Amino acid sequence: MKFGGNKITYFMIFGGSAIIASAEIMKFSGHWFFTTFFTPIVWTGYIILVDGINYLWHRRSLIIGDTRNFLWMLPISVGLWYLFEFYNLFIENWRYVGLPENRMVRYFGYFWSFATIWPGIFETYILLTGIKLFDRIRCKSFVPSPRTIWIMIFIGTALELIPLLFPNRYWAPAIWTGFVLMLDPINYRLGLSSILRQLRSGTLGGILRLFATGLVCGFLWEFWNFWAGGKWVYSIPYLGNVKIFEMPIIGFLGFIPFAVEVFVMYVFVGWVFKKILDVSFIHFEL
After folding, report:
1. I need a labelling partner for 157 at 20 to 30 A (CA). Which of 5, 36, 100, 286 fits?
2. How many CB atoms are located within 10 Å of the residue 223 CB?
């Protein structure tokens, strides 16, 4: 499902820019709505802005170019992020402050914020693809053996179980890497887009763009979160007092595997939805 044209593309670019600028102005003028919901507002503007740029650049985007996929991505993003919220009950690495007391309003903010995570990652990845970042970087072809695949799945599953069985603040790296090791080999065996498939082709561009996407989005998340009224704060045990914005500096490394997790989880969920609902438009290709 596609719709497009120069008018809608420029409307997206200027509209997204206007949302971000308006949010900044209204937030610093003290408006309660823009102060409280600053993060989801600016991320909505960012996604719209980058979608317009992506479509203008090379006709690949989510909202304009792949609308059904984008609409399904919103609730999937909420659901997948709540998986990490579940893990946070065990590791207690972040908490939210400055949120509305009214529960319905507060959960409206949660759902809106969480719905922007997967689209924000993927729009940024498409943007970096549009400028051909890392396109020429290649490596020797790596073809994983069946034994390697099963070892990866075992290690990834173990990493995701450990924080549940032995709750501790130090298990965050296990959570941010486990799903990659557990699900990417499965995606590979299913013939889906995967990191292992990229390595088999001797291509590193997509993988490195995911790494860069995590850092770009991580910086923007933390930058905009720092100024928000309703926001998250961290209690990370690794160099917790050395911060950039609200994030301990070492925590930025977590955004690198997180972007990869976003990719492998979404590809797997797309396959599950295809099997259950017979839909084939929930996908993402490197």
Report:
1. 286
2. 14
Residue found by looking up tokens 């993988």 in the block: 207
Name beta bridge partners: 243.
Answer: 248
Which 3-state string (H, E, C) describes the chain?
A: CCCCCHHHHHHHHHHHHHHHHHHHHHHHCCCHHHHHCHHHHHHHHHHHHHHHHHHHHHCCCCCCCCHHHHHHHHHHHHHHHHHHHHHHHHHCCEEEECCCCCHHHHHHHHHHHHHCHHHHHHHHHHHHHHCCCCCCCECCCCCCCHHHHHHHHHHHHHHHHHHHHCCCHHHHHHHHHHHHHHHHHHHHHCCCCCHHHHHHCCECHHHHHHHHHHHHHHHHHHHHHHHCCCEEEECCCCCCCCEECCEEHHHHHHHHHHHHHHHHHHHHHHHHHHHHHCCCCCCCCC
Query: Band of the pLDDT at 1, cuts 50, 70, 90?
Result: very low
Distance CA 83, CA 58 (A): 34
* Tokens (6 digits) for 208: 């490195």
The pLDDT value given to residue 240: 58
Residues across the chain: 286
